[in-house]
What we know:
By secondary structure, the protein is of the alpha/beta class. Helices cover 41% and strands 20% of the residues. The protein contains 14 helices and 13 strands. The chain has a five-stranded mixed beta sheet. The protein has a five-stranded mixed beta sheet with strand order 8-7-9-5-10. It has a three-stranded mixed beta sheet with strand order 6-11-12.
Amino acid sequence: MKKWQLIGSTVIGTSLLLGACSGSNGASKGSDVEGKVKGDGSSTVGPIIEKLNEKFAKDYPKVTVSNSTAGTGGGFEKFIAGNTDFSNASRPIKEEEKQKLKEKGIKYNEFKIAQDGVTIAVNKDNDFVKELDKNQLKEIYSGKAKTWKDVNSEWPAKKIKAFSPDQSHGTYDFFSEEIMNKADINAEKNADTNTIVQSVAKNKQGIGYFGYNFYEQNKDKLKEVKIKDDNGKLTEPTKKTIQDGSYALSRPLFTYTNEKKLKEQKGLQAFTKFILKDEGKSAESAGFVALPKKDYTKQQHKLDQILKKDNKESNKNTKK
């Protein structure tokens, strides 16, 4: 099976069509559920959806789930246009996106599905950058610091080559808010996260940032940088620090569902339930971090309430 990281975030038109195949023998427990479910959005969340769909397809062979990776912003554009049933995001939905959905009359539901830590990495041959604080990162990505010596007087006067996701990515938005105070990012930007990884790996003065799983799967080519939090405490991304939020650049990952479609489409209902009942196992196998179990339980209850509310309304209309 192909690795997601080789696909990258540029494959906007390519979908995961795994739902049409079933790996189980005989009738599966979801064999009576049919339909097509379409998603798009974050390339960071994409590997989690792929892992989930591999398992979901075995239980629900008549439901086809397709998912593309236009980036968080690009995914929300399609979601707002009504072209998708669910939208994956590596940041919370923005106010302007909420407003556009409201104008379109689209109600949505937010589900947190995993935890991630944006990882800062330099070239593996870089033997002097071991830690950075947020101000130093801002100097690098604003372009104020041209050389490593500008960042730290004890470091060599070698020109920094900074790499960043482009504006279609939730990772870009997260970094912009957490590090740049929404100021412009001055770096070589790319839609494909794998290209960013490769650029840092090939450039001795390179620095880049991306989701934890991209680092984990390329740690032989890169060197992780520890980050000082707002209190001056040095932190590094591990499963523990990402889950408990003590890592300075921890963040939640989301999927958003169109509420009307969620209530109407059995396939979307089944897939959303499956995501929450999985309790982060697929996220872990994709290189991310599961939420505490109670968070999934709470969201399963939320989903049940959404669907029960719809059933009650349907019964009222039927009686009328």
